[in-house]
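Work Package 3 (structural annotation) set out to generate three-dimensional models for the target panel prioritized at the project kickoff. During this period the team completed the workflow that converts sequence records into discrete structure tokens, so that structures can be stored uniformly alongside our sequence database. As a representative example, we reproduce one entry of 192 residues exactly as it appears in the project archive.
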Amino acid sequence: MKKFTVPKIFMAVLVVLAGLTLFSCLDNDSPEIPPVKLEDLKGNYKGRLITVQGNSRTEKIVDFKVKKDTISFAEFPIKEIVKSVVKDPAKAETALNAIGKVKYDLQYTATVNTANNVIELVFTPKVLEFKIPVDGVNKNTTVVLTAKQKGFFVGMDHSLRYALAAEKITVDGVILDPFETINYNFPLCIKN
């Protein structure tokens, strides 16, 4: 009967463990993430909107639709705009109720960034126009919206992230002054 010494048993165990370790490295258990395509962007979204104006910050959930080259809002958030124009809180609420829903379409161009598996969106916002009824008079209001950074559709989780800002408001041809910029941040939007 042969006697195995401790070093020979230790070497045998070490060789078996090394073999198993190398074998497990060959087995790729991570899921395959498909590359993002421009068609992935289209659909109905629900997302978190963080609105910041000066020291005021509000959050709510909004719905919008993404088409080939447009993000369409059936109800664009105008509360802060109206409250910037109408300083009396009671009159502002009355005006908001009278205005109802304001539609807005945000134009964009999209390109696929294959290295990061994202779709980059460059926005070309148009002016938002609507009327604010105050004391029996409709005030023609135009809002200059800007997008200073790209938006991103992330292929990993199919989420959309972007931001807008209302930088200037004109009421009946007069620029609203003083006015503090209203920032609309959409940090996480998911398809319905």
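The helical segments are 6-26, 79-85, 89-99.
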